[in-house]
Amino acid sequence: MDATNQNTPKKPAPRVAEDATALLRHFAPEVRSAYARFAAAGAAEDADLVILAVIRDHIPEKSVHAATRLDDPVALVADLGFDSLAITEMIFFIEDLFQVSISNAEIMEVRTIGDLRAFIRSKLAGRAPAAPDATT
Predict the structure, then answer these.
(1) Using CA atoms, how far apart are residues 49 and 10, in angstroms rounded to an integer?
(2) Is the predicted pLDDT of residue 17 greater than 50, yes or no?
(3) Higher pLDDT, 78 or 14
(4) Which residue has the higher pLDDT, 9 or 104?
(5) To the nearest whole number, what is the mean pLDDT of the chain?
(6) Cα–Cα distance between 123 and 117 in angstroms, integer?
(7) 82: closest CA among 51, 58, 106, 65?
(8) Dist CA 43 CA 35 (whole Å)
(9) Going by C-beta distance under 8 Å and a sequence separation of 6 or more, which residues neighbour residue 127?
(10) Closest CA to 87 of 62, 104, 65
(11) At what angle do helices 84-98 and 113-125 cross, to 10 degrees?
(12) Which pLDDT band, with edges at 50, 70 and 90, does 65 fall under?
């Protein structure tokens, strides 16, 4: 056994920029741009734009997809038709995209779009931007 491999970490280093590009490849250019701005400067309004796009992308009932405004009081389950599987898939996507960890207990408290936006903002608040803006 090679001694150099004994202490090698099993988990590869995160490739956030490459991973985000792959995850967002089918989203509109303005969503990808908002994510890039968020990654660079950490602006909550850019994260919100991305979160709303992710919600819209994961709405189970595609007939609701185009017609519904994604306002804060809109309920994920009652108004948009999310079930536990759709919520789980969306949360996994958000975890991968924003490199955050979300427990089942935490997500059980989220009922509306506003709840989800506020919750994700709180998760992101403690996270430093990937590449701080040198102009500020």
Answers:
(1) 34
(2) yes
(3) 78
(4) 104
(5) 81
(6) 10
(7) 58
(8) 10
(9) 42, 98, 99, 100
(10) 104
(11) 30
(12) low
Burial class (CB in 10 A: 0-12, 13-18, 19+), 71: exposed
Amino acid type, 11? K
The DSSP secondary structure of 47-67, one letter per residue, reads HHHHHHHHHHHH-S-HHHHHH
CB 99 within 8 A of CB 16: yes
Which comes out higher in pLDDT, residue 135 or 61? 61
Instruction: Sort 118 into a burial class: Cβ within 10 Å, 0-12 / 13-18 / 19+.
Output: middle
Radius of gyration of the chain (CA): 17
What residues form DSSP beta bridges with 75? 112
In single-letter form, the type of residue at position 84 comes to S
Centroid of chain to Cα 41: 16
C-alpha–C-alpha distance, residues 28 and 49, integer Å: 11
pTM: 0.77
